[in-house]
From TrEMBL:
SUPFAM superfamilies tied to this protein: Thiamin diphosphate-binding fold (THDP-binding)
Keyword terms, alphabetized: Oxidoreductase, Thiamine pyrophosphate
Domain of life: Eukaryota
GO molecular function, one term: oxidoreductase activity, acting on the aldehyde or oxo group of donors, disulfide as acceptor
Stored InterPro entries: DH_E1, PDH_E1_Alpha_Subunit, THDP-binding
Cofactor names: thiamine diphosphate
Protein name, per record: Dehydrogenase E1 component domain-containing protein
Pfam families the record matches: E1_dh
Domain Dehydrogenase E1 component: 1-53
Length: 68
């Protein structure tokens, strides 16, 4: 829905290597979770969760002026 309505949303996904009750490796065909957004025409970016400066730069890139 976010892609369809063009909502200015940043989804943050943490990969703890587990799916629902089993290892992530056994539960998905795409091992890099950040690539899954392309199925809904949403760009994906991998950012190390410990790199605060990269997160800040990414958030600044995503700031979009609100539309009426």
């Amino acid at each position: 829905m976010a892609a369809m309505w063009k909502l200015p949303i940043m989804f943050v996904v943490e990969n703890n290597l587990w799916a629902i009750g089993m290892l992530h490796l056994r539960a998905t065909s795409e091992l890099e979770i950040w690539k899954k957004g392309s199925a809904s025409a949403m760009p994906g970016v991998y950012v190390d969760g410990m790199d605060v400066l990269k997160w800040r730069r990414l958030a600044m890139l995503l700031e979009i002026p609100s539309k009426p």
